[in-house]
Amino acid sequence: GNSVTQMEGPVTLSEEAFLTINCTYTATGYPSLFWYVQYPGEGLQLLLKATKADDKGSNKGFEATYRKETTSFHLEKGSVQVSDSAVYFCALSVSSGGSNYKLTFGKGTLLTVNP
Amino acid sequence: GAGVSQSPRYKVAKRGQDVALRCDPISGHVSLFWYQQALGQGPEFLTYFQNEAQLDKSGLPSDRFFAERPEGSVSTLKIQRTQQEDSAVYLCASSFSSSTDTQYFGPGTRLTVL
Question: Is pLDDT above 90 for B9?
Answer without folding.
Answer: yes
